[in-house]
Amino acid sequence: MSEPEFRFLRPSGVPRATPRLLCVFDGGDAPGYSSVAVALTEEGTRRGYEVWAATEGFRSLTDDATADLRFERLVVSRKERYDLLARNIPARSMGRRVLDPGSDFRSERYLGFHTRTKRDLAAETFRAQGFTHLVCVGGNGTFAGCRAWLESFGHARPPTAFVNVSIDNDVVGDRAIGFLTGIEAGATIARGLYEDSYTHKRVYLLEMMGNRSGRHALHCGVASRAHLIVLPFFRFPDEVLAEIADGLGRCEHALVVVAEGYESERRKKDLPGASASSYFKMQLEGYGLRDREDRRVIAEPFSRHLRGVRPAFADVSAAYVKATLLFEAFDEGRTEIMPYVFTGHDVGVRSFDQITREDRVERSLLPLLDRLGLPGFRTWVRDHFTTSADTL
Description:
With about 400 residues, this protein is of the alpha/beta class. About 35% of the residues lie in helices and about 15% in strands.
């Protein structure tokens, strides 16, 4: 394959002996992308790396790029940025951006990377630009894309790392950056509705993030003291739906958290376009729980704004720890690694072959799914979803 022809071939005139790191941000937005970008820039610069970002994630390395500027140099100080701009080198100062919401450098789930030809082209682009090291930042889908891409490098794979940033927290062996911030923002929304339900004697059915595991919805529901939490893999029989409708009907007020993936396949068939919360409301209406003027039953849609909130400092701290672990691993000659952080005393680096996806949720939270006192619901959940001593 011939070398790709771009107007902007080599990112700078720095000798090729200088390690040149490319950061690729991809996947769904989550609080902490910018924190990771800042941490990688600061630690990489301190260790003598040139740090670059693909402006549109994986897409920037292919002929599907939509922006003329495909790569941007990341530096710490404004002075250095001005010096680089004077030399016609695109640069961005990251020194004060550690709390920025969202991300400037990403694309959302670039589907073109599912094809081998696009990944092969991306590998050629990577080499043509003179990059020597690679860090992919995102969730499980980004990790899968990173591993598939490495096959296109053959035996000349660059030193590579993955940083886990996701609200879903579905990668085994790490606490995703953005997970704690997502819980804080989500639980704040849920608790606000809880208080409104108390004040106005309403029943709120709140849809929250959770397409597969429902871990975000679960933790937000527990933290906000929701009366009932409905996970995405639940499919209630008639007797359980009747029990839930009766229990909510007898409550003075209630908050129900419904994961966005609840009954997704049945919804597509029976009620296309319906949200998980509105579909659950429709189900309960069939068993007598109806919205009335004197007793409101309200289905609240999913709120995406929590993806764009500023990262909490706990996630910022984890970003710096992970960046340090990553570069220490590179300095030791390691590759295809993921830095992980659980607590201040439980950190380290895992190899790619140790990383898997995990969509199950913690069994320890099982008793907190139901505060209505529904024996049929509890028995049904225990019998159908308890698979081990630790997960359900």
